[in-house]
Amino acid sequence: MPGDTKPHLARQEKKRARRPKPGTVKQLSAVLWRAITHLEEHLDTTASAETVDTGELCKLTHALSQSASTYLKAVEVGELEARFEALEKVQGLTQDTPGRWAA
Predict the structure, then answer these.
(1) Ranges of each domain in the chain
(2) How far apart are CA 81 and CA 29, in angstroms?
(3) Around Cβ 64, how many Cβ atoms within 10 Å?
(4) How far apart are CA 60 and CA 28, in angstroms?
(5) Could you tell me which of 68, 64, 79 has the C-alpha nearest to residue 26?
(6) Three-class DSSP labels, the chain
(7) How many Cβ atoms sit within 10 Å of the Cβ of residue 40?
(8) Which class for 48: exposed (0-12), middle (13-18), buried (19 or more C-beta within 10 A)?
């Protein structure tokens, strides 16, 4: 049948092609650290200004604390991933070589 194309499938495939690949924990940590240092500089500038805008100061402090919290979680996850990989390597080695309790 002419016109039996499925344009919604083409749109979905185009959307999938545009979608960025998920990042890694290291990439996330790097981006968050840059944001934290930028927020710290801006907070210092705002706090040492002649007239301090309390609203902006509160927003910057909140943004800094949220970013720092997320950064710490990302670092923690990165460390856990490394530990799991090390454990999996050890477990893989012990499964390949029978131990003293092997039947």
Answers:
(1) 24-95
(2) 14
(3) 17
(4) 20
(5) 79
(6) CCCCCCHHHHHHHHHHHHCCCCCCHHHHHHHHHHHHHHHHHHHHHHHCCCCCCHHHHHHHHHHHHHHHHHHHHHHHHHHHHHHHHHHHHHHHHHHHCCCCCCC
(7) 14
(8) exposed
Write down the pLDDT at residue 16.
78
- pTM equals 0.64
What the block records as the tokens of 100 is 């003293």
Crossing angle of helices 25-47 and 54-96, in 10° steps, is 160
Are 46 and 52 in contact by the 8 Å Cβ rule? The answer is yes
Instruction: Profile the chain (103 residues) by mean pLDDT over runs of 10 residues.
Output: 69 78 87 95 91 91 96 94 90 66 51
CB atoms within 10 A of CB 32: 19
